[in-house]
Write a structure and sequence with these properties.
The chain is an alpha/beta fold. The protein has helices spanning 16-25, 42-52, 59-64, 83-89, 91-102, 113-126, 128-149, 157-167, 177-183, 242-251, 274-284, 319-328, 345-357, and strands at residues 201-210, 215-223, 229-238, 266-271, 308-312, 333-335. The protein has 13 helices and six strands. 37% of the residues are buried. The structure holds zinc ion (ZN). Residues 73, 75, 77, 85, 90-92 line the site of zinc ion (ZN).
């Protein structure tokens, strides 16, 4: 009947429950702390947490518990629907990732669930934006699958892929394409080509050209989801810093905005200077505080768009913008209509070539 001390908490801060869990399950099996690096929305995070714990009611999962008559994938893939199927092999998922690839977002192509986890872990560390897009893609495909199973309507792969991009938290949109490609050379196109944006989106390509006499040409090309030219512009300024000039080139878009552009689903802003793209992304993140700098670059005009994704692309995919930047050294211009005789033929050819390929 004496008072005895009771263990409530170890000095390392672990609760008794956590200690008991660790003793029973083992820490190794529960090591998914890296998932936090992806900063998913709670809904998507919970989904992925369940995925890791094999707690997603796939048909195989249900059949194992005698809760379903079939373990096959409801999309008609002719395969058992388990978590590896939902995250890697499913035909529907592949159709969605193919749409994303058409727009320039290349997803990992692992062979097994363990492989996929390994890729995702790598992405969480090196390229969280692309990891995030992958997580959202699997989640949105799973939602569509539930809609199919319960007789509700669901979107085409293109609609699902566009939903993925529109759902990504606005301030975290900057997949680093090149970095991903270095890690995963297999299964990717050998040369990175310019891609059209998703339906009803706009794509802005920017570039700057500097001369040794501190003159800079700023080039901008805005195109729609069919690869058609909306507007191209060039501006001539005095400048000596390449990154600042690149930033100015991107910001020059503010002067080209028409009201109808805000009604579009989103905007992809692409440049071949990784530093400039990184800067834009950092300034754009409200948490950075950089956007509040009085004399800093002003990106507030972008906040009116529904979604903005910054993307770093190889120089070869940015040729029309590069052309405009160089052409701007001769003087300012704005081109609206590719059929106009005022536009140099080389530029028209570059744009047509890219839209044909895309
Ligand atoms: Zn399937």
């Amino acid at each position: 009947m004496k008072d005895v001390p009771e263990l409530a908490r170890l000095n390392r801060g672990k609760s008794v429950t956590a200690l008991a869990y660790e003793a029973k399950i083992g820490e190794g099996n529960y090591n998914i702390g890296w998932l936090r690096l992806l900063r998913l929305h709670p809904r998507e995070r919970f989904f992925w947490w369940r995925m890791m714990r094999d707690a997603i009611p796939t048909n195989e999962w249900l059949a194992r518990r005698n809760l379903a008559d079939t373990d096959q994938c409801p999309w008609g893939c002719g395969m058992e629907e388990n978590r590896a199927h939902c995250t890697i092999h499913c035909m529907k998922l592949k159709q969605v990732t193919a749409c994303l690839a058409e727009w320039g977002f290349y997803m990992p192509e692992p062979n097994s669930f363990e492989d996929m986890i390994c890729s995702l872990k790598g992405l969480a560390r090196d390229n969280p934006s692309l990891g995030r897009i992958f997580c959202y893609t699997v989640y949105q495909t799973w939602r569509a699958r539930n809609a199919l199973k319960h007789g509700r309507s669901f979107g085409t792969p293109k609609v699902i892929a566009a939903t993925v991009l529109s759902q990504i938290p606005k301030s975290f949109c900057m997949p680093q394409m090149e970095q991903w490609c270095i890690n995963q050379p297999i299964g990717l196109p050998t040369n990175h080509l310019w891609c059209t944006p998703p339906p009803n989106w706009l794509k802005v390509n920017f570039d700057a050209a500097l001369t040794s006499s501190n003159r800079a040409g700023l080039g901008l090309v805005v195109r729609d989801d069919m690869g058609r030219l909306v507007v191209a512009s060039g501006r001539f300024i005095e400048h000596w810093d390449p990154i600042q000039a690149e930033l100015k080139a991107a910001l020059a878009f503010a002067e080209l905005i028409d009201d109808w552009m805000y009604d579009r689903e989103g905007l992809i802003v692409e440049g071949d200077s990784s530093e400039a793209v990184k800067w834009l992304q950092e300034i754009y993140q409200p948490a950075s505080g950089l956007h509040r700098m009085v004399d800093g670059p002003d990106l507030s005009f972008l906040s009116k768009f529904r979604q903005v994704i910054f993307q770093h692309i190889p120089r070869l995919s940015n040729r029309p913008a590069d052309f405009c930047a160089k052409h701007a050294l001769l003087g300012d211009f704005i081109w609206l209509d590719v059929t106009s005789s005022l536009i140099p033929l080389t530029f028209v050819e570059l744009v047509t070539e890219e839209s044909d390929r895309a």
